[in-house]
């Protein structure tokens, strides 16, 4: 690619990163916040200036379309612009901008050559991939792929009681567009883990996903005075929750190193007063592994630990809701496409797994899907210090351009 | 006392308990909320109808005054109308209403007899005793007794960023009244612990207070992706906090049973997202004991446990602020006054300690102060199921009337 298209990409990336920029060099653009609205408006403008048709569907997914052949199916490329709180500027946003630039280049090449690709082209910003404000994560792609009903999604509220419907409406981000049938999907994303950075690999061809068990849990206790209530009579929900958090963490001790990841990172205390023993704690358990055998064994262990901690703290642990991702593989033709593109451009590559969830994980169950990774330095993500070098970003865009070119001419058929 | 004054008290108590009433039979009237404003307006009306002058000071303490002898000092009686979230209806509110009824009876007796008490009479609703919305607790009496500056108190904000100044101003509850010098203070309160209920004692003469060490603590970690970040690299602030909570709880194992009470009941997670490892947890540690030797020993143990958990979880624990209550005793003449009043009325009594803090704890450092307890069934408090029987409430008012009568005629001089 010519130098100037690299410079344009980096300039666009720098501008995009100003929306919701944090003092620590990251961004905060949780789904359907004003900052998310600002970056979406910027993308809309970018689409229009480049001759894309812009559309919104009923869950706020934002599409830019280039039609070559009226009536032909589309192929779709994208990721998400929303972020975690105090997050990095690469997660998702890099993939949306890379998709846009790659599609622009491929469309220009076809126009310049006077050729007609087999499929029309579309770029998407999936709504609410992060799920920090509105759970579950990967919401826009879940609705698109029929895994979540639109009515259910629109009715979900954040911790302040604001619904997805109201938040999207406030941004004027609810449309009625239905994307025509798509023949394939590709996404490029930062790895968010350390494996590629550790081994010095530039391009990751994602061959499989880890699976996840996620649980909403309530620990039930009873209110009392922190000063005067006897220790032996207490039913302290926060003490029960503390034992649950350490139990979740200690599950990994029973498994081979780094084959199981377990976390509690979201927690609410009721009533959360300094002098009243907590009556209830709600928390979210996140367990991930390469296969469900590991997760099933971990869950059984956890249930045994919970029985003990309930007795010890006189609390009751209730599982309120669960969300399960099965592990899965990406189509071999797509993985090969990534390897070929990297080879042609002289970039080192490896087959990798994704431990994080991505919109591609939803879409791969619908149509042939390709997921490409570029390295995250030290594997840091969901953190303002998240970093992918400019050189690695540009290498990814060039590889992704080749992938778009191949898919649009029928390589995944 | 005649039956009808008992009936009037219970009718007033029932009416008072409707302000901020919860479905579970309790009340929720956190300081300077609309519900607190409603019950304060009701008390203001009750004061006025009974011929009290009503005044507000700069921190929202609400006074009702009966002047017998212009220029004479006052004696003050009261407690607080604010509550914890989802709390009982007796805590504080019983004491304000009992003080009002007792003062009305004593004033009427003097008027009927044409006698002139030595002191003028005042009833107070101390602002924000509970401290659940605005820390520290016992705020109004702390400002009154010079332990907390009014500017500092007015600048304190709740978790939503609303200051005491703004919340009080919204209720039109900031005045410029300064109560004339007081010669004594008395308060009646529910015990909030089980000792009197267990032993069947009707009247508690509070002889001493437990002491407390309270700490605002931050556990520092680092954000990361819950799915993809290696377990061995994590600095999970919520995991660190969980170990801290269990460490605080396990302190009591090193002490004689029920000589040390330790609790964490307030906690905030940042960023509190289901898929981002917590970068920081803020929590409040509450430790109480009969004497500071126990607390000092517990604190030293806790610091050693914190060093271990910091290493284990790669987090850092910072003590941000502390609030200390020394233990103390109430004047012997006041304790004797309670015992004599109970004896005269034929109620069983005992000398007790208060494990909870009360406004009386602040005022006793200023003037001779009496604190009286009535039993809490099963010691339940800060809970909708908090209960003191009507018979015990009425016995308390009758005893308190005798105490008011004695103090107003110089018994504490």
Defining key terms:
homodimer; 413 residues; alpha/beta; Aminopeptidase; Alpha-Beta Plaits; nine-stranded mixed beta sheet; four-stranded antiparallel beta sheet; 12 helices; 13 strands; globular
Question: Can you characterise this structure?
Answer:
Two copies of one chain form a homodimer. In chain A, 58% of the residues are buried. The first copy, chain A, has 413 residues and is an alpha/beta fold. In chain A, helix 3 (93-113) links the parallel strand 3 (74-79) and strand 4 (120-125). The radius of gyration of chain A is 23 Å and the shape is globular. The first copy, chain A, has two domains: 3-210 and 327-408, Zn peptidases (Aminopeptidase, 3-Layer(aba) Sandwich); 211-325, Alpha-Beta Plaits (2-Layer Sandwich), CATH 3.30.70.360. In chain A, the strands form two sheets. In chain A, strands 1, 2, 3, 4, 5, 6, 11, 12 and 13 form a nine-stranded mixed sheet that branches. In chain A, strands 8-9-7-10 form a four-stranded antiparallel sheet. Chain A is 36% helix and 22% strand. In chain A, helix 10 crosses helix 12. Chain A contains twelve helices and 13 strands. At the A-B interface, helix 8, strand 8 and strand 9 of A face helix 8, strand 8 and strand 9 of B.
């Amino acid at each position: 690619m010519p130098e100037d298209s690299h410079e344009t990409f980096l300039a666009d990336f720098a501008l995009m990163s100003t929306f919701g920029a944090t003092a620590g060099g990251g961004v905060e653009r949780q789904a359907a916040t004003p900052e998310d609205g600002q970056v979406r408006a910027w993308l809309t403008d970018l689409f229009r200036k480049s001759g894309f048709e812009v559309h919104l569907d009923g869950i706020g997914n934002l599409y830019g379309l280039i039609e070559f052949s009226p009536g032909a199916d589309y192929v779709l490329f994208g990721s998400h612009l929303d972020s975690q709180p105090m997050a990095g500027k690469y997660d998702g946003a890099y993939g949306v901008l890379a998709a846009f630039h790659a599609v622009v280049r491929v469309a220009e090449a076809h126009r310049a050559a006077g050729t007609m690709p087999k499929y029309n082209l579309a770029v998407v910003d999936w709504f609410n991939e992060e799920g920090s404000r509105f759970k579950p994560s990967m919401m826009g792609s879940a609705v698109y792929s029929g895994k979540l009903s639109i009515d259910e999604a629109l009715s979900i509220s954040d911790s302040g009681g604001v619904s997805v419907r109201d938040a999207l409406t406030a941004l004027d981000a609810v449309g009625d567009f239905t994307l025509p049938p798509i023949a394939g999907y590709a996404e490029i994303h930062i790895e968010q883990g350390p494996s590629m950075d550790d081994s010095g690999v530039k391009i990751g061809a994602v061959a499989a996903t880890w699976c996840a068990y996620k649980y909403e849990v309530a620990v039930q206790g009873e209110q009392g005075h922190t000063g005067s209530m006897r220790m032996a009579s207490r039913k302290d929900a926060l003490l029960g929750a503390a034992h649950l958090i350490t139990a979740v963490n200690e599950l990994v001790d029973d498994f081979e190193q780094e084959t199981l990841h377990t976390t509690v990172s979201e927690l609410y205390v009721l009533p959360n007063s300094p002098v009243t023993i907590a009556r209830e704690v709600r928390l979210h358990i996140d367990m991930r592994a390469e296969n469900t055998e590991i997760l099933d064994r971990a869950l059984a262990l956890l249930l045994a630990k919970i029985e003990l901690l309930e007795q010890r703290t006189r609390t009751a642990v209730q599982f309120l809701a669960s969300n399960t991702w099965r592990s899965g593989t990406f189509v071999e033709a797509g993985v090969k496409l990534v390897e070929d593109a990297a080879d042609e451009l002289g970039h080192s590559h490896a087959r990798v797994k994704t431990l994080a969830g991505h919109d591609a994980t939803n879409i791969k169950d619908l149509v042939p899907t390709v997921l490409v990774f570029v390295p995250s330095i030290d594997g840091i993500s969901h953190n303002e210090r998240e970093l992918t070098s400019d050189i690695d970003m540009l290498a990814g865009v060039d590889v992704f351009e080749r992938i778009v070119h191949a898919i649009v001419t029928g390589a995944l058929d």
